[in-house]
TrEMBL record:
Organism taxonomic ancestry: Eukaryota, Metazoa, Ecdysozoa, Arthropoda, Hexapoda
Segments forming domain CAP-Gly: 88-130
SUPFAM superfamilies xref list: Cap-Gly domain
Protein's recorded name: CAP-Gly domain-containing protein
Top-level taxon: Eukaryota
Ranges of compositional bias, category Polar residues: 146-172
Amino acid sequence: MSGIPKPSGIKPPSKIGRPCASQPPRPAVPPSPTRTSAGDDSTHDGHTTRRHNPLDSSVVLTEDTDSFIIGDRVWVGGKRPGTIAYIGVTQFAPGDWAGVVLDQPVGKNDGSVANIRYFQCEQKKGIFSRLTRLTRTPLLEDDVTSETGNSHHSSIPQPSHTPPSRQGSTLSGRGLKV
């Protein structure tokens, strides 16, 4: 036998994952956007609620998203009423999404996106929303910080129970995926 060891298949450590000494470590979660003069953060019953224009999709309207279930009556962005028909992951974007059947045909789809069916509804009555963009009651203009800087406590309720985690569910109970 020769004195040369056989390769083990284990690669030597790489310096790629090592942080540079001249740069401070970055957090794993990106920092939240900086506040503008139109925005305001307030703490109410231990929950932080951001109050901006509810049409701004980056604004968190509800923090306790685990309490939403299929069949719940909600308002998308605090303005458009409907019923949750799907909650779970999607192929079009990461994270948990709610598929909502709107009362009026002001939505974007019929429950399918990119030929993948998540729930069934009439054309233009379906919309997908981040769970943080749903509210249990409609938002009034007084619930949002006004341009003058006057603020009112948000009327967004904070439910207390937490259901089990979600894999993707539909109103009918059948996870239809085409």
